[in-house]
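Here is one chain, start to finish.
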Amino acid sequence: MHVPKVVLLFPSCATKTFGNNGGEGTSNEKTIAPPLGILYLAAELISADMEVEAFDFNAEQYSKHKLREYLVGASVAGISIMSFNLEEAHSLIEDIRNEFPHLPIIAGGPDLILRPRRIEGTVATVCHEAETIIVPLVQAILQKQNLGSIPGICFRDADGETVWGPEFTPQMNLDKVKFPRRELLRVNKGYSVVGKKRSAKITSLITSRGCPKQCSFCAHGAVSYRCFRQRSTENVLEEIRQIVTEGYEVIGIVDDNFTADKKRAMKILAGIKAMNAKLSLAVQGRVDAADPELFRSMREAGVKMITFGLESGNQDVLDFYRKDTTVAMNAAAIAMADRAGLYTGGIFIFGAPFETKEHFKKTYTFATSLPLDITTFWILDYAYGSSLWEEGVKNGTHKRDEFLIPAGKERGTQLYPTEELTDICERYFFHYYLRPHYWFRQAMKFVRIHDFYLLLVILAGLRFLIVRKCTLLMEHIASGLKGMFHFKRRMDGQIQSVSSSDGATKLLTDGRITSV
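Its structure:
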């Protein structure tokens, strides 16, 4: 009996370090943990007796040769599309169509939940959470059945028209979702910022979907159906026990807001501590959940790092973003986590419509006053699905077919052009890490905490900074030399083309040429 083979692919995806999406400050050189989305789908397909392979081109270099190798014998190919890998995803689909013109392709992922639409080159596009959709969809494709009865998808009919399936109902009980099949990407090419030797020891975990808060710049609420869903404590701990059994040592809990329910978080942390598994964990939280007991529990359970969306050191900006937090709460949370022995990360956003350079400077000064171990500065994006994006459409700053617009004077959404905002983010980003006080504090923290792995992360960050700074310097030098070369060619050409009655020419000091 023939067993169908489904190959799931994750395209390369630029990782924003500072600035805006897709320009300076992006890099796809490092990826920290495997993408769980395709691994959740793999679990469903394997349970339906299908063969599944998964490949992450964000962790290994993409090539058409590898693509041909990976798709040999495939019955169906599935591609996960994020907002940050759209171009790469479309290129990947085109390459598959060229190399395997008869291979059915399915596309899905968060960007398609955010903006439901049919992706050209696919037999079907999944526009919702796909765990309950993927098996009947693949079966229908393989059996050449009509796809019209499958909810949550769209496809092109024989007349070339886009057809939508029945209305989709999200799975509210996340305990019913099968655990992701992490082994499929276990030997992939390097989930670590500190070297490939540790890559097989690192994974990620989702314990909830969505966030109960309503920050104006955040589009995650639209992806999660504007509802906050949590897995039970028992279900989460069962998956962590499986992760430990499989030999993982580092877990990134990638919930939008792990601390949204402090009582639940405390129960999960207590359960992890009871395992005595010597795990290293990283979580994301909000400053309004800061609590000494919570942070002590994190430390005892093996949490090494917590990251907060601090956004600004200006209260008017926090209010504009509807953070429901204060600058004082930001400072208190970072200090509290630091005292508990946690490494701290803070993200700042530049670009609220009224923000001036004094605002930016105040935020930077605020950042340097905190015991932050990792920080970055981003430009505000008007992302499709966020309330800021909706307000922008109403105000005419962008159209409904524009989905990710960086703040900037060009659109009337900021006082300074986007390029200048990017330069400001870059300058503060490098200045932050090049301060001697920062590295002195890191040395003192290592003495206090003795966490070798996090020290490696910090040193890897320093290496990135040096390489990136040198790269930017070389780019500026190359740009200058290129400009000088083109200027010289232009001048040579003009000199040769200019003539006068007596054949005399004169080059003026400002670069103009005139006949005499």
